[in-house]
Amino acid sequence: MTEFTIASFNVKNLIGPDREYYRFQSYTPEEYAWKEDWLADQLLTLNADIVGFQEIFEEDALRDVIAETDRRGHASNAAAVPGKAARYHRKAIFRKLAYDDYANAALAFAPNVNDTGQPGQRRPGLAILSRLGFDGAPEVIQDLATPVEIPFAELDGGDAGSFRLSRLSRPILKVRVPVGGRVVTVFNCHLKSKLGEFPRPEGAAFAPEADLTRYDAAGRAMGALRAALRRTAEAWVLRREILKVLERGEPVIALGDFNDGDHAVSSEIIAGEIPFRNYSWMLRHDAAHSGDRYTAKENQRITEDVDSRRLHSAEKLFVRKSLRDMVYTAAFGGVYESIDQIYLSRHFHPEFDGRIGGLDYFSVFNDHLTDGSHPEAPYNKLASDHGQIMAHLRFDE
Asked: What's the rounded Cα separation, in Å, for the pair 285 and 293?
C-alpha cells in the first residue's frame, strides 16, 4: 500500500513586492514578507505530497514560499521529532509530526498567456509541486490549436449562432505523477470567475456597465451570463482532456478553483453524468413505439460507459463516510460554499469493484476565512480568501 496526500491551494495573488498586479494593487516589502510568512505556515501545516496552486503571478515568489516552508519544517523536526537513536522515534505520533521537505520536489509553473507583464493588468497562472516528481514533461493547455465552436439552434431547428472559445482565461496544468508502482494524472485548473465580463467600446476608457453611478442592471446581468458561458466552456475543455486519460483506463485527479459549487453545471460537466438507475425503463433514442426501450444488455453497457468516465468529489465521499455536515472553502455575502474541489476517478471509489485505491481522509483548512462582505471582517488581503483542501489517498498494491 502506498499512501499520499494531494492538496489544492489558492494563494490569492502571489507576486513579489512593489509590483502592481491589478489596478492600484501591490504589496509593500512589509506586506510581502507578511504574506510569505502566512503562506509558508499554511503550506507547512498542509505538508502535502502534491500541491496544486492557483493565482501565481511569479514562479520566484512561489519558490520563496517553498524555501521558507522548508526552513520552518526543518526547525520543527529538530524541536519535535526524536532522532533515530531514541527508542521511541518510531511511534506513530512522531511520523505524523515529521515534515518532509521539498528540496528534491518537482515544480511545474504555467504562466498565463494573457499576462503581458503590464503593471496593473497582470493575469495569474498556476503551479503544481510534487515530492514524488513527474513522469514526463508537464503539459499546459490554454491556447487552443483548434478553437471550440459551440453551435446553438432555435427550437424550430433554425440557426441561433455560436460561441467560439480559442483561449482559456487561465491555463490548465496537466502532470503525470508516479506514486509507488503506478502513475496518476493530475489536472490543476482555475476556471473563469463569476465576475462579469463587460466589453469596452472602441476608444472608451471603460465599459459602460462598470460605471456604478449609472447602474445598468440588465447590462451587468449580461456580463454575468458571459462569465458563466466562458466558465462552462472552459469546464468542457478540461472534461475533454480528462476523458482522454479515463478512456485509457488510467486514474485521474482533477483539482483547483472551480469558481462554482459541485452541483453547478460547470462542475457537473467536469465530473460527468450520473448513470440513470435503469436504462431498461427508458425509451430508446430511436423508439418506434411506446414500449421500445433499451434491453437489459444495453442497460449494462450504457451504465458502464457512463460510470467509467465519471469523477467523484473527494469532499462528498468523505462527508458520506464521516457524517460531517458542512465543508466550505469560500465565504461571501452570507454564503458559505465549496468552490475549490478535488475530484477522483472511480479507481478510488469504495463501491467500485475494480478500485485500486481509496480515500482515507479529507482535510479542510479554513479557520482564516471570514465573510468578505461583512463590515467587521478583518483585513485579509495578505492571507488567502480561499480555504485549502487536502485528500489523503492510497494505492492498494
From this structure: 9
Alpha helices, H only, 160-295: 217-246, 265-271
Measure the CA–CA gap between 144 and 220, rounded to whole angstroms.
Answer: 28
Instruction: Spell out a b/e string for 68-83, using b for 16 or more CB atoms within 10 Å of the CB, else e.
Output: bbbeebeeebeeebee
108 neighbors 128 (Cβ within 8 angstroms): yes
Contacts of 50 (CB under 8 A, 6+ apart): 4, 5, 6, 7, 128, 129, 130, 131, 132, 177, 186
Between CA 100 and CA 299 the distance in angstroms is 48
259 touches 193 (CB < 8 A) = yes
Angle at which helices 59-80 and 29-46 cross, to 10°: 50
Task: Give pTM, 2 decimals.
Answer: 0.93
How far, in Å, CA of 194 to CA of 253, rounded? 24
Q: φ, ψ for residue 186 (rounded to 5)?
A: -115, 130
The CA distance from 234 to 169, in Å, is 8
Query: Please, what's the b/e burial string for 265-286 (b: 16 or more CB within 10 A of its CB; e: otherwise)?
Result: ebbbbbbbeeeeeebeeeeeee
First to last CA, the chain: 5
| Residues 294 and 282 sit within 8 Å (Cβ to Cβ) | yes
Which are the contacts of 296, defined by CB distance < 8 A and separation ≥ 6? Answer: 280
The segment with the largest mean pLDDT, out of 59-68, 153-162, 261-270, is 59-68
- Domains (range + CATH), the chain: 2-191+252-272+311-395 (3.60.10.10), 273-308 (no CATH)
What amino acid occupies position 387?
G
Q: What is the largest CA-CA distance in the chain?
A: 80
Tell me, rounded to whole angstroms, the distance of Cα 373 from its chain centroid. Answer: 24
Tens digit of pLDDT for each residue in 214-245? Answer: 999 999 999 999 999 999 999 999 999 999 99
